[in-house]
């Protein structure tokens, strides 16, 4: 497994490992967000999860039937999927090994938050602190995503129609975005074009989604966490409503939570200074 990564800042400073979400690439962590953390004294490492960006693509394993995976889980069966979130957490720790980093702050967004929770739970000796952003415990009875968001995500065009694909991703970014920190269609399009020029792997996206479905909830693991934990969530997150963040914080003993009004399911430019300050202060205090 080859993992594409980028390291920023002084390697002698405390490391902050940034873990991105479903189908996202390391460049979905805004440069200004990363640089802000570097300026606060951290060695920042961002990377592509398996099956995204420039990391190993597992297309030889085929495209999973997501409906079948859901059915297996609902019947109480062990779903037949290429890999699970535990494997993706192991990738993150293997990257730390490769870089010679003994312990790191783990900052995960969305699915990356779930992966970060697993790193903190299964590898506490490698975890300085955990920041779980716009993520979830995976508890199935929590509030569902907004219907408009679900419709937008499911309306995926054929992968060979590049213009339709750009419009599709821009539309998804718009419907999950932050109402108090809107970004223009041109800004969305610029990022989408940059992402697609770097890599596009729709089957990998589905394998990651299958991993999320098959991995179930992390209620018991979160209840046993003993690393300093900060939960950050948007009050207006339409994909994972704020209940998901509140549930995560309720489960982790001694955790802290910040819920921001007007924040959706993205990392908007206007909120970056606030997020950088809160994360840097928390992680610095955690040691």
User: What is the chain-wise order of helices and strands?
Assistant: EEHEHHEHEHHHHHEHEH
Rg over C-alpha atoms, rounded to the nearest angstrom: 18 Å
> Biggest sheet, in brief?
7 strands, mixed
User: What is the CATH C level class, in words?
Assistant: Alpha Beta
For the largest beta sheet, what order do the strands appear in spatially?
Answer: 1-3-2-4-5-6-7
User: What would you call the shape?
Assistant: globular
Count every helix, treating DSSP H or I runs of 4 or more residues as helices. Answer: 11
Count of discrete domains: 1
Tell me the structural class.
Answer: alpha/beta
Helix content: 40-55%
Tell me the total number of β-strands: 7
First-residue to last-residue Cα separation: 31 Å
Mean pLDDT: 97
Which topology does CATH recognise?
Answer: Rossmann fold
**Strand portion, in percent?**
5-15%
CATH homologous superfamily heading:
Alpha/Beta hydrolase fold, catalytic domain
CATH level-two architecture: 3-Layer(aba) Sandwich
Low-pLDDT regions: none
Summarize the structure.
With 287 residues, this protein is an alpha/beta fold.
Can you walk me through this structure?
This protein is α/β, with parallel strands linked by helices and 287 residues long. The protein has a single domain, classed as Rossmann fold (3-Layer(aba) Sandwich), CATH 3.40.50.1820. Helix content is 44%, strand content 13%. The chain has helices at residues 31-39, 66-74, 85-98, 111-122, 147-154, 162-176, 185-198, 202-215, 219-223, 242-251, 272-286; strands spanning 5-8, 15-19, 43-47, 104-109, 127-133, 229-234, 256-260. Strands 1-3-2-4-5-6-7 form a seven-stranded mixed sheet, sandwiched between helices. Helix 1 (31-39) runs parallel beside helix 11, helix 2 packs parallel to helix 8 and helix 6 (162-176) crosses helix 7. The longest helix is centred in the middle third of the chain and has 15 residues, at 162-176.
């Amino acid at each position: 497994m080859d993992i594409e990564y980028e390291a920023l800042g002084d390697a002698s400073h405390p490391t902050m490992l940034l873990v991105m979400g479903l189908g996202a690439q390391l460049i979905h962590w805004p440069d200004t967000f990363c640089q802000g953390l570097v300026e606060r004294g951290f060695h920042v490492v961002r990377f592509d999860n398996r099956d995204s960006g420039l990391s190993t693509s597992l297309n030889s394993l085929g495209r999973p039937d997501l409906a079948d995976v859901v059915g297996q889980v609902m019947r109480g069966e062990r779903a037949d999927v290429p890999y699970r979130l535990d494997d993706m957490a192991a990738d993150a720790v293997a990257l730390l090994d490769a870089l010679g980093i003994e312990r790191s702050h783990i900052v995960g967004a969305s699915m990356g938050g779930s992966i970060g929770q697993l790193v903190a739970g299964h590898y506490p000796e490698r975890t300085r602190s955990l920041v779980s952003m716009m993520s979830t415990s995976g508890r199935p009875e929590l509030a569902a995503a907004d219907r408009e968001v679900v419709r937008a995500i499911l309306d995926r065009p054929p992968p060979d129609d590049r213009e339709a694909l750009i419009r599709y991703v821009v539309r998804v970014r718009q419907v999950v975005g932050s109402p108090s920190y809107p970004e223009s269609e041109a800004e969305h399009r610029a990022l989408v074009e940059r992402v697609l020029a770097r890599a596009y792997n729709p089957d990998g996206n589905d394998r990651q989604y299958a991993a999320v479905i098959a991995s179930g909830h992390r209620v018991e693991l979160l209840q046993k966490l003993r690393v300093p934990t900060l939960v950050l969530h948007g009050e207006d997150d339409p994909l994972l409503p704020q209940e998901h963040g509140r549930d995560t914080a309720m489960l982790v003993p001694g955790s802290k939570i910040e819920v921001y009004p007007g924040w959706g399911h993205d990392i908007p430019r206007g909120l970056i200074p606030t997020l950088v300050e809160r994360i840097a202060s928390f992680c610095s205090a955690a040691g």
